[in-house]
């Protein structure tokens, strides 16, 4: 029970801020081995006025996994499953949330039923089998090696992919964004880093992808007492691993960071001397401004009224201002959160307002969140002395280009090492998008916008070849 509660808290720590004004997502996890539900499922949980998208994986053996992409929470492990005939019950019990799902398997391609949650919340859920992904019929020409490396005593695990083991290669390290991600960074079926690895391998680079703390095969440590600087130390450990590898050229190791991963990459560059940096949709302004502009863009995409958007921004601003003080008043933060929750048109009693406010306060009072809202990445970006490519998507609603790109443009005008690219029509994941909204991610094909991977690999090759 205590371990399940700890897992839930860890997954909420770094991604909480995106959905500050939504209901707490349903997080559940477990072990399962019956054939009728083996495979991948997708669907929704519906309660009150909320409809939350979920994905569930039931493997032949091992742990079943739940993903709640709207909350940026992935690879949660189901802890209780009961199956009798076509009936299936799965539940998650933590110190704060007690979820109970009671469903029926229909025609082996859908599951539906009811669920209940501590505090008297009740609703329905439904799942359907996810469509099979396209088979990768292309020849796999590279060699994958499982690797472990350490930050102090914390063990992190990853995959090093090599074009071959007969020579030394330039290399690149991938660093994921906010939230605990596995090495593939799978979002709505789009394995971003796994997909991006292939074009770099085809361009002659070795590629290192690794599981974040608390995800996949990496150890978690205490995620409530770490921030982006600690994740930069993890990336530095990965960098040192490659420096010693017999099939990697130690003078040609680059780093690619997506979203917060770009911030982490620039922090790494303060201590190390990578061959180059690629910053994919990386923040370039202080964290509180990143979040304020992100909130405005996301709520506009949801067609909320201007007064509703302003109300949300006012609450956020009050919270960020308090958190940036040397000694923030937790009582004040709680009161703001309570007011924000009670202002929503939800049928919740005061006891449930209080429970939810306390839960959300845990997220904003973490060391990671307090560091993020107060940190200005320009402190690191202005120190970069190696070739750096910053790329943006014109329809990105999370790292809004109209706010972040001008800062990078200014840096590029002052530092010839900087190159800036913007991909028209691309969202935060660099997919071709219609609106760029987070809700749209799941409906888009799992591939990058045309020309994206070619632009990145050609730029990286030009840097590496120029050094030779």
Short description:
The chain is of the alpha+beta class and 468 residues long. The chain has helices at 2-13, 192-202, 228-243, 260-271, 287-301, 306-323, 330-342, 350-364, 367-374, 378-381, 401-414, 452-467; strands spanning 39-47, 50-58, 65-68, 73-77, 80-84, 87-93, 98-106, 110-117, 121-129, 143-151, 154-162, 169-175, 186-187, 190-191, 206-210, 248-258, 277-280, 388-393, 418-423. The protein folds into three domains: 2-129, Lipocalin, CATH 2.40.128.120; 143-285 and 376-467, 3-Layer(aba) Sandwich (Rossmann fold), CATH 3.40.50.1820; 287-373, no CATH class.
Number of helices: 12
The fraction of residues in strands falls at 25-35%
Give the CATH H-level superfamily of the largest domain: Alpha/Beta hydrolase fold, catalytic domain
Strand ordering within the main sheet:
4-3-2-1-9-8-7-6-5
Describe this entry's structure for a reader.
The chain is an alpha+beta fold and 468 residues long. The protein folds into 3 domains: 2-129, Quinohemoprotein amine dehydrogenase alpha subunit, domain 2 (Lipocalin), CATH 2.40.128.120; 143-285 and 376-467, 3-Layer(aba) Sandwich (Rossmann fold); 287-373, no CATH class. The protein has 12 helices and 19 strands. The protein has a 9-stranded antiparallel sheet, with helices on one face. An 8-stranded mixed sheet has the order 10-11-15-12-16-17-18-19, with helices on both faces. Strand 10 (143-151) and strand 11 (154-162) form a beta hairpin. Helix 5 (287-301) runs antiparallel to helix 6 and helix 7 crosses helix 8. The N and C termini lie far apart (56 Å).
